[in-house]
Amino acid sequence: MEKANIKTLIVTGIPGVGKTTVINELSSMLKGRGIQSFIANFGDYMLKTALTEGLVSSRDQIRKLPHRVQIRLQSLAARSIAEEARRKLIEGGVVLVDTHAIVKTSSGLWPGLPSHVVMELNPDVIIVVEASPEEIYRRQSEDRTRDRKDIQEKGIEEIKELLASARYAALSSAVLVGASVLHVLNERGKVKEAAESILRVIDTI
């Protein structure tokens, strides 16, 4: 994604941190300033291709596909997001990519932002949204729309490990394109504060 007058942020976080909620709040703030934004949920793009090819019937099945298939879906998703962002933000704006820095799969922890993805998207900043392990576990357990039993196998300890891995993964991806990494705490009832911390960083780009 050519920088030009487009600012690109990749917003990551393990399931349950509330990153999508933070992104939506941030988008509303940008709109209030008269700044156009384009939100791209990376998983939606992967799912669209996987459904078309008959590979899955739901989003949570993607991480259970063969590794090489997931890599191909990743590449196609990154390319589609970059192309759509350029079409929709002709006069400039902010791209917000909603995704994960790591994904727990049947073959182990899988990088959500490997070189072929992060270089295609070319972000200015990689955001790592976090919350307390206890809060994340609660949110995961209350979300009846997703099947995350495989993510909760070891409970709180598993979540702590995933949080640490997500930080390392985000930093490793940022090195590839010279992006900065920002950790944002999304505490319960404080989504506005989390979004404002990201907004302040956008002003510095």
UniProtKB/TrEMBL annotation:
Alphabetized GO MF terms: AMP kinase activity; ATP binding
GO cellular component annotations of the record: cytoplasm
Compartments in which it is found: Cytoplasm
Source superkingdom: Archaea
Entry's EC annotation: 2.7.4.3
Protein name: Adenylate kinase
Chief location category: cytoplasm
Catalytic activity: AMP + ATP = 2 ADP
Annotated ATP binding sites: 13-21
Family in the record: Belongs to the archaeal adenylate kinase family.
Keywords: ATP-binding, Cytoplasm, Kinase, Nucleotide-binding, Transferase
Pfam families according to UniProt: AAA_17
Organism field: Fervidicoccus fontis
Stretches assigned to coiled coil: none
